[in-house]
Amino acid sequence: MLVAVTAAPLALALACGDDEPDLPEDERARQVSGVAELATNAYASAGAEGLYDYLAASVVAACSKQGLAQALADEPVPDGFKSIGDVTFDGSRATAKVTQVFGDEERQVAWSFALEGNNSWRLTNVPGIEACES
Fold this sequence. Notes:
single chain
């Protein structure tokens, strides 16, 4: 019994070594992933209007809900979120490859994000949004 009690702190110390990932960056990636999942599922259930709630303030200022719906009219609407990968950061901006489900198929799209306020990531670019007008 004494051996197990003595070995536990040593095992814990070894588990927390230098191989631990950088927590702040991991937290940012988790936040971006969460926004991507929420935005994809909102898009899947409500169309462009659902996606609108996840846009950055700069995009909303230049693009109305109706304008977003028109801009994304030719884009396929996903059935749901699968995963996110290749998340990269450049200061308060991030890009990621978002894998979405379309029936029995998956499609990977590039999305861009901006940090607004205190740890609130918002979408700045999704395929088709460049055609948005107010």
